[in-house]
Amino acid sequence: MFFPSEPFRIKVVEPLRRTTREEREELIRKAGFNVFNLPAEAIYVDLLTDSGTSAMSDNQWAGLMLGDESYAGSRNYYHFEETVRDIFGFKHIIPTHQGRVAENLLFSTILKEGMVIPNNIHFDTTRANVEYNGGKALDLVIDEAYDPHIDHPFKGNIDLEKLERAVEEYGPERIPLVLLTITNNSGGGQPVSLENIRQTRQLLNKYGIPLFFDACRFAENCYFIKEREQGYQNKPIKEIAREIFSHGDGCTMSAKKDGLVNIGGFIGINNDELAAQITNRLILIEGFPTYGGLAGRDLEAISRGLQEVLNEDYLNYRISQVRHLGQMLEENQVPILKPIGGHAIYLNAREFLAHIPQHQYPAQALTVALYREAGIRAVEIGGLMFGHKDPQTGKEVYPELEMVRLAIPRRVYTTQHMVYVAEAISNIYRNREQVKGFKITYEAPVLRHFTVRLEEID
Ligand code: F0G
Predict the structure, then answer these.
(1) How many CB atoms are located within 10 Å of the residue 390 CB?
(2) For the chain (length 458 residues), average pLDDT per consecutive 10?
(3) β-strand 211-214 against 178-181: which pairing, if any?
(4) Which of 2, 82, 230, 381 sits between 20 and 30 A of 394, alpha carbons compared?
């Protein structure tokens, strides 16, 4: 067995509390069987998200002490701008307090009713921000992405034929930009190849459509390119990143992922007029353009995090830790999405709980079982998150994939924690017939999975 060893040692520890099965039973019932409603202190290994949950380095913590909290022109902003421009290369760098604000600012500025945004797969907040602003969110990833068994090196690639068909169907004037999500979170944390990026760019050039990146996990995407794409084995990660973004007109970024911080984000953009419009809106809802909803110290932590995330020792450990967890599960025949992605393992709940029909939310049932069994929190990415009522027929439409995501926070848990998680899941798998389905008792009209309440079906 290959154990990824940590390229760091531990200087500060955060104690974890163990709960009993009885306590967990009571808590999950009180939470309406929705793990978003659980107090984090009642969780042993929290794999809800890799977003904003990273452990910062001593260098980042030191940077916090150098926070310049001036309202305008903070030195940390200049450092941030310089770092982001060095890696991403965009002309205007607009800070925001997290990724979805970047999305909201961008889409509320560029979208008009009836416009369309193609993407490989929209993350849920991205889709919601597109739709809320009158747009239509199209998921145009290659078909292989929807088959959890196909081992494709770049399963996050956008399908160029689907993209060209969409451009012809809607017309370039209704497509203000195309997004590429790197890595493709909702499709399993799968990377997009540089070849696919180049080809997308060429196609869009024909129609004069801008290309943007949803860059949350760009460094992990770069690592996969280095590992899998011909011609990149000897390239430094930063050079790969620069090459990716050289094909784009802008990006939205949640620094809560590959910025290695607990809060932060930005928009990178070349178009002067759009940048000015977005900046005006930023002042209205986030703050002055040199802090954008963040403290000066936060900007400093992002600058340092963005430099650390490009370190190959770090990325090798990061990707290997996730892969190691996946391999332990595979050894116990647990069905997972293949190949193993960058930031998370995705349990294939449809196969794991084949006895629970999709309208009884098998991925949610598995999420609840994980908490009950072992105090592990994961997130449902399936019928609850992406299911919705068809406005015409009123019938519930379900997504193709029914997954449970185990997102691994960066630099937080040890190999032993991963062994614990693998054992707990393998145990549930051996006793899977005991797991029951759920029905919804309350749901909100948008992003319902955050606040939904459920009842167990006997
Ligand atoms: N885009 C992608 C691909 C994401 O994964 C996320 C967040 C966002 C945009 C929004 O960024 O949270 O800073 O506002 N993903 C988190 C997750 C929440 O758990 O995958 P945010």
Answers:
(1) 9
(2) 79 95 98 97 98 98 98 98 98 98 98 97 94 96 94 97 98 98 94 98 98 98 98 98 98 98 98 98 97 98 98 96 97 97 96 96 98 97 88 87 95 96 98 97 88 95
(3) parallel
(4) 381
Distance in angstroms (rounded) separating the CA atoms of residues 82 and 90: 10
Contact 377, 48 (CB under 8 A): yes
State the number of CA atoms in the 13 A half-sphere of 145 facing the CB: 25
Give the CATH number of domain 21-50+311-456. 3.90.1150.10
CA gap 310, 299 in Å, rounded: 17
**Which residue's CA is the nearest one to ligand 1's atom 21?**
99
Q: What is the pTM of this model?
A: 0.95
- Which numeric CATH code is attached to 59-308? 3.40.640.10
Q: How many angstroms separate the CA atoms of 185 and 51, rounded?
A: 11
Give, in degrees to the nearest 5, the angle at Cα 221 between 249 and 313.
125
Ligand 1 pocket test target in 35, 50, 51, 302 with most atoms within 8 Å of CB: 51
Closest CA to 443 of 364, 385, 366, 375: 385
Q: Which residues of 361-387 are buried (b: 16+ CB within 10 A; e: fewer)?
A: bbbbbbbbbbbbbbbbbbbbbbbbbbb
Torsional sign, CA 42, 44, 50, 53: positive
Residue given tokens 């025949």 in the structure block:
333
Ligand 1: list residues with CB < 6 Å: 49, 51, 98-100, 123, 125-126, 181, 185, 214, 216, 254, 256, 265, 407
What residues does each domain of the chain span? Answer: 21-50+311-456, 59-308
